[in-house]
Specification:
The complex is a heterodimer of chains A (256) and B (478).
Chain A: E1 5-16, E2 19-30, E3 34-38, H1 45-53, E4 58-67, E5 70-71, H2 77-82, E6 85-88, H3 100-114, H4 122-136, H5 153-167, E7 171-175, H6 183-195, E8 202-207, E9 220-225, E10 228-233, H7 235-244, H8 247-250
Parallel strand pairs in A: 3-8, 3-9, 6-7, 7-8
Antiparallel strand pairs in A: 1-2, 1-4, 4-5, 9-10
Helix pairs in contact in A: 4-5, 5-6
Chain B: H1 3-8, E1 23-25, H2 32-41, H3 46-61, E2 84-86, H4 100-108, E3 122-128, E4 131-135, H5 138-142, E5 147-150, H6 151-157, H7 159-165, H8 176-184, E6 189-193, E7 202-208, E8 219-224, E9 229-237, E10 244-247, E11 250-255, E12 260-267, E13 279-290, E14 296-303, E15 308-311, E16 314-317, E17 323-332, E18 337-346, E19 352-361, E20 366-375, E21 383-392, E22 398-407, E23 413-422, H9 425-433, H10 438-449, H11 451-454, H12 459-472
Parallel strand pairs in B: 3-7, 6-8, 7-9, 8-11, 9-12, 10-13, 11-13, 12-14, 13-15, 13-16, 14-17, 15-18, 16-18, 17-19, 18-20, 19-21, 20-22, 21-23
Antiparallel strand pairs in B: 1-2, 3-4, 5-6
Helix pairs in contact in B: 2-3, 3-8, 6-7, 9-10
The chains are: A alpha/beta (256), B alpha/beta (478).
Amino acid sequence: MTDKVLLEIKNLHAGIDGNEILRGVDLTVRAGEVHAIMGPNGSGKSTLAQVLAGNPAYTITTGSAQYLGKDLAALKPEERARDGLFLAFQYPVAIRGITNAYFLRSALNAIRKSRGEEELGPVEFMDALEEKLKLIGWDDSYLSRPVNDGFSGGEKKRNEILQLAVLEPKLAILDETDSGLDIDALKTVAHTVDKLRRPDSATVLVTHYYRILTHIMPDYVHVLSGGRIVKSGGKDLALELEEKGYDWVRDEAPVA
Amino acid sequence: MTTGIEAQVLQPYKYGFVTDIESDVVPPGLNEDVIRLISAKKGEPEWMLEWRLRAYRNWLKMREPHWANVRYGPIDYQAISYYAAPKKRPQLESLEQVDPKLLETFEKLGLPLQERKRLAGVAVDAVFDSVSVATTFRETLAQQGIIFCAISEAIREHPELVREYLGSVVPYNDNFFAALNSAVFTDGSFAYIPKGVRCPLELSTYFRINTSATGQFERTLIVAEEGSSVSYLEGCSAPIRDEHQLHAAVVELVALDNATIKYSTIQNWYPGDEAGRGGIYNFVTKRGKCLGKNSKISWTQVETGSAITWKYPGCILQGDNSIGEFYSVAVTNNRQQADTGTKMIHLGKNTRSTIVSKGISAGHGQNTYRGLVKILKGAEGARNYSQCDSMLIGDQCGAHTFPYIDVRNSTAIMEHEASTSKIGEDQIFYCKQRGLAAEDAVSMIVNGFCKEVFKELPMEFAVEAQRLLGISLEGSVG
């Protein structure tokens, strides 16, 4: 582990359509770490993920989020992505008529190009893809299917992880990637995410449930409630939440 | 698809240049003398002139149609010049004698005509204003008995074929614009594929309007004899000008027993500017006749240009078991208006037709699909499948669908599917989150939407079509 700070969020307030959802979030993520952000429905978990990725529907009102020392608000979503910020969507969208392989290669090449690296041709790309496919337990047939079109909920989530594996981001935010997965799929997905961890990268898992954390051991667990992080702790906190439910922390005074 | 296409997306209309070349232009205005003059310039036989005059006299009695869902100011037919030709007349047999400026023009358009630079596998007839300037690969084609030349030449050299088929699918009095075309058509292509021959090359005509205040009235006739097959592609472009220019073409296809004609269009006439100034009025009549049994005619069009498009490539399915297809992508951006679709007329038994139409509207563009499927009494066992999808980009544009269905035989099977979707902010955000720029995201989503049509295009042109689509949607998302 290094001390390198990847993400630093300070007193972040943000909302959508004039409704404030995040009400002062503070969070620091360093390279090599895994953070779990838990919390009840409507607590602002997905909003936090969307705001970090730069969804234009959301507005930051006060506070700041810095990624690699840069003010996130000043970066376009595609610039954040090219700098290595990745969001695995809770509800991935479908793109008709565009194959998974083409989409993945376009995304990878857009990122490579921005870094001054050579773009990959179809053949080289397919070679690089083979091992990534194996990681998530898929065969080639998924590559020629249109992006998320006609995919089951579980397949869509797995596809997000395939993208994660291909794009190799520095900061991966997984927005409820575990929901909608059966036990076996959850295991595969969690193991893949775990395998993809690098000393220079970090993972933020947004989740309702404890079960994914049995496969990916978090360094920190935070409870988001009412738009703020009300409690932070080690992996034991997740277990405690599993036993006692969220009401237990909601009643406690905010930590920050 | 390659990322090269993506990289080329978002360029302004790059075919808007004017070639500075001395032209022989007939003064504006239309009367019988102008028609006699055109006919004389082309060295036409008497029967051709008579046909033109009959068309003209009919046209005088007709009214410009206004049922289409498009708006434009009145057209002054007396302000148009009906003939313009580069002064140095090219000798068709020898490319060395073609004005270098013309060769340069076509090279700039991506269509080199010189032997060593030619597109492999594509024979090109290049039409500049009112005349055909060159046709490539003529000898190669002639070895198989295929005739591919300018229609004006065909009228002189192969009068028996032209006389038999000209007007047999689109009669000279078919409609207002077809009648006008019949009276004044200047050039265009003629292709004849003899019995049992599969044309080894793609045949292609490239139409270029250069001179201002002229109209372009080309006429294309393709005849596929028994058991033959041909794939034909037309492309077009025009300089950027403030005034509107009229383009009223007629295309006729005839397929005899077991013959197949595949006709693809990439229409990229100047679309006008953001405020709707200038641009081509593209009023075109295209029709194919499946005359023989088991014959097949397939239309594929990618319509990205023109200020106004009025065009319904159709098929008359006369032969038993004949097949008609129509695959279309029509894009309207800025102030462009398109009213386009097809007509499938089922006469023969077990005739089948397929219609796949993709309309994309952006800016203030208005896009209308208008299609007729008519199944006549004798068309036992006829089938049609229609699919009309519309995509909206932004909230100032419109998509409209007018499917007309007329079935007079109870054994017919008809299927119709339609959808309208808005290009989603969420889709664009998703692509951006993966590192793609907004315009690449739009181009990708739109290309995906059009895939079913693009896959019908010959390979070389599918790439061109995707690139054009990106260009014509330039600036449609913030």
